[in-house]
């Protein structure tokens, strides 16, 4: 499963999300919304206004969500 995290620099919730995924050796890619206006438009079109936005397969959510990350870990 591919995991993409839409974030920006100095985001505490983004860093927390990276740390949990990294500790569990789950690969992910980061898209910096400050450098990619098209990605920003995409997550806004999805209805999100808070970061990080995590897209994992067909699932997606915003904010630091340990419950969602733990559910991913169970399915990896």
TrEMBL record:
Q: Which organism is it from?
A: Photorhabdus laumondii subsp. laumondii (strain DSM 15139 / CIP 105565 / TT01) (Photorhabdus luminescens subsp. laumondii)
Give the protein's biological function: Electron transport system for the ribonucleotide reductase system NrdEF.
Gene encoding this chain? nrdH
Instruction: State whether keyword Transport applies.
Output: yes
Q: Which residues form the Glutaredoxin domain?
A: 3-61
The protein's name in its UniProt record: Glutaredoxin-like protein NrdH
Q: Into which family does the record put it?
A: Belongs to the glutaredoxin family.
Q: Does the keyword Electron transport apply?
A: yes
Extent of the signal sequence: none
Keywords in alphabetical order = Disulfide bond, Electron transport, Redox-active center, Transport
Q: Which GO terms describe its biological process?
A: cell redox homeostasis
Record's SUPFAM superfamilies? Thioredoxin-like (SSF52833)
Domain of life, per UniProt, equals Bacteria
- GO MF term (any one): electron transfer activity
């Amino acid at each position: 499963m591919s995991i993409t995290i839409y974030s920006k620099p100095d985001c505490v919730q983004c860093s927390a999300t990276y740390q949990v995924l990294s500790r569990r050796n789950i690969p992910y890619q980061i898209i910096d919304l400050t450098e990619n206006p098209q990605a920003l438009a995409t997550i806004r079109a999805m209805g999100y206004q808070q970061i990080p936005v995590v897209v994992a397969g067909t699932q997606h959510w915003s904010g630091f969500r340990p419950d969602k990350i733990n559910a991913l870990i169970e399915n990896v």
